[in-house]
Amino acid sequence: MLYTQQHRSTKVLMDIMKQLILIAILTTLITACSRYQPTILQGNALDSATIAQIKVGMSKADVIQILGSPLMQDDFQTKRWDYLYYSIEQGRKSEQKNLTLEFNGDIVSKIN
What we know:
membrane, BamE-like, Beta-lactamase Inhibitory Protein, Chain:B, domain 1, rod-shaped, 2 domains, BamE
């Protein structure tokens, strides 16, 4: 009779262990399938406060100090600098801002 009670309690413990292991495996599989995708920011940060600091008549050096180097600078169009900023959330482009500056020599002549 003692042997039967020990056998039953051992069997119950084994069943509980199997269930716990199964739950742990399933939890691991479910969390592994849902991968984390961070927000990716590309280009120069172009918020309205920063853009408002750029004025016609500023030098290229002043612009670089405020915005940094332009993302795109055409070797054939040295009068134009293009700043581009976008963010990618969940694998999709969620926001995009463009800023084009045109220069007359070393001075900002037009802001788009």
